[in-house]
Design goal:
By secondary structure, the protein is an alpha/beta fold. The chain folds into three domains: 4-82, Archaeosine Trna-guanine Transglycosylase, Chain: A, domain 4 (Roll), CATH 2.30.130; 124-250, Sugar-phosphate isomerase, RpiB/LacA/LacB (Ribose 5-phosphate Isomerase B, Chain: A, 3-Layer(aba) Sandwich); 257-483. It contains 13 helices and 23 strands. The strands form six sheets. It has a seven-stranded parallel β-sheet, with helices on both faces. Strands 1-2-5-8 form a four-stranded antiparallel β-sheet, with no helix packed on it. Helix 1 crosses helix 4 and helix 2 packs across helix 10 (398-407). The longest helix has 20 residues, at 318-337.
Length: 498
């Protein structure tokens, strides 16, 4: 098994694939060094002497500069690397486009074809509160209705309430963000039916929310205000759920082309192997989905900083390029408006795993979208309309970003991690580990181990296995977060709460 890797011939560091020790020799290209100190797995060792201020090169790009001299064979991490990144920038469009050829073998999966033409990979009943004040009502309805239909013959695979804190005492963008995300959920194809529960006096008034949602099938989407119900709102809600269940309990899976898949791409709790194993694996998968005529969505705008020009130059045209520039600079402006550094260092878990600067994390993160041309750019809360690779405005926060991906219309979120996390958003949230020890330690969290790529399994072999596994999941096999019942939403908030 390989002990280390020099990712790009231009790199002046090598990444340890397993723990290395002082006295071990590293040979990469024309560089041969003997380690002067231990290098933990995922961390970087210098391949030559670096002088204070000199750039550290990884993935063929600078990831920052050293703040002190670093002799060949020593550890370089967040303690001695500083970002090169700056604030708002002007960008120019220099197209570098790679057309992904259509696959010679078009695949299918078994999904639920909805009346509006969308395809779901689950057939669930969702209970969505318009405001946090009725979270208890929503949770009680879900618990009671699950118990009522247990053992009944039905294709409904889950009844889930999605409590949240918002829907009132919000202004401007925050209020609209809440309304948009909840409306997106009402239209999501993974829901065979939806019950919207409102209070009656909240800012997110049910009448205005109905208008925002627009046309729906009234046999599958029902809404009511608890303040207008005479007597027990739980019994009223149960009657509504029974009617919804009658409408969707006999839905069946049919063969559907993979071109109908919309897949969210997300990473969290990264380590030094993220950009070597799991993220490139998702990149291969993303290009495969595009070759099938399907759609993938990349988000986490702050984790594009430092790699944004790579994405910009992959935009299909200048109009898409300009939208991507706005995507980046608008998020930088948001940071600056709140007097926060645009290029904050990665989280403690990222640092412990070997990620030293935001550039380093971004260059690894953006590999999740492969080489495809960027076809669309979405605002937060906007639903997909263009097939192929899309970029979505959302923060790096795991649950907020995953919720945004699902709300855009993605039927599944692929989530790479080097540290591990149990959560799931309101669509299947598949965890892909970057390293084998994590997969072995947390088998009830991790769904697929990409760490085998660092253990000499060829990328092509791993990608083939991954494609088959994803197809099983969209056919109905549950991921670990679903088995554990972990389904949550989080809505982006940036302003004042009254």
């Amino acid at each position: 098994m390989s002990e280390y890797i020099r990712i790009n011939p231009a790199d002046n560091v090598a990444v340890a694939l397993q723990d290395l020790h002082a006295g071990d020799a590293i040979a990469a290209g024309d560089c041969r060094v003997v380690l002067r100190e231990d290098i933990p797995a995922g961390h970087k060792a210098t391949l030559c002497d670096l002088r204070e201020g000199q750039d550290v090169i990884k993935y063929g790009f600078p990831i920052g500069h050293v703040t002190r001299d670093a002799a060949a064979g020593t550890l370089v991490d967040h303690s001695c690397i500083k970002t090169n990144l700056e604030g708002l920038l002007d960008y120019s469009y220099t197209p570098a486009l790679t057309e992904i050829a259509p696959s010679s073998r078009m695949r299918t999966f078994k999904g639920f074809r909805r009346a509006d033409g969308q395809v779901g990979v689950r057939n669930q009943i969702w209970i969505i509160p318009t405001v946090g004040c009725v979270n208890g009502v929503a949770n009680t309805l879900a618990e009671r209705f699950r118990a009522e239909i247990a053992g009944q013959e039905s294709s409904v695979d889950a009844v889930v309430a999605f409590p949240h804190n918002y829907g009132c005492s919000q202004l401007g963008d925050d209020h609209q963000n809440t309304r948009n995300i909840l409306a997106d959920m009402v239209h999501h194809p993974n829901a065979g039916g939806v019950l919207v529960v409102s209070l009656g006096c909240e800012n997110n008034q049910l009448g205005a929310f109905r208008e925002l949602v627009g046309e729906v099938d009234p046999s599958r989407v029902r809404m009511f205000e608890t303040q207008k119900v005479d007597g027990d709102e739980i019994e009223f809600g149960m009657d509504e759920l029974r009617a919804i269940h009658d409408a969707c309990r006999n839905d069946v899976r049919t063969d559907v082309p993979v071109s109908e898949l919309r897949v969210g791409l997300k990473c969290g709790g990264s380590d030094g192997l993220s950009g070597i194993t799991a993220n490139p694996l998702l990149g291969v998968f993303s290009d495969w989905i595009v070759s099938q005529g399907g759609t993938t969505v990349l988000t986490e705008v702050p984790e594009m900083f430092g790699a944004e020009t790579i994405l910009m130059n992959r935009c299909q045209d200048e109009a898409t390029f300009e939208k991507t520039v706005s995507l980046i600079n608008d998020f930088k402006s948001y940071f600056m408006k709140n007097d926060q550094p645009v290029y904050e260092n990665p989280s403690p878990g990222n640092k412990a795993g070997g990620i030293s600067t935001l550039e380093e994390k971004s260059l690894g993160c953006t590999q999740k979208c492969g080489k495809s041309i960027v076809r669309g750019v979405l605002r937060y809360g906007e639903r997909l309309s263009v097939k192929g690779l899309n970029l979505l405005s959302a923060p790096g926060n795991d649950l907020v970003a995953s919720t945004a991906l699902a709300a855009s219309g993605c039927q599944i979120v692929l989530f790479t991690t080097g540290r591990g996390t149990p959560f799931g958003t309101f669509v299947p949230t598949m965890k892909v580990s970057t390293n084998t020890p994590l997969a072995q330690k947390k088998p009830t969290w991790i769904d697929f181990n990409a760490g085998v790529i660092a253990q000499d399994t060829p990328m092509e072999e791993a990608a083939e296995a991954f494609i088959e596994y994803v197809l099983k999941i969209v056919d109905g096999e549950r991921v670990n977060s679903e088995k554990s019942g972990y389904r949550e939403i989080a809505i982006f908030k940036s302003g004042v709460t009254l």
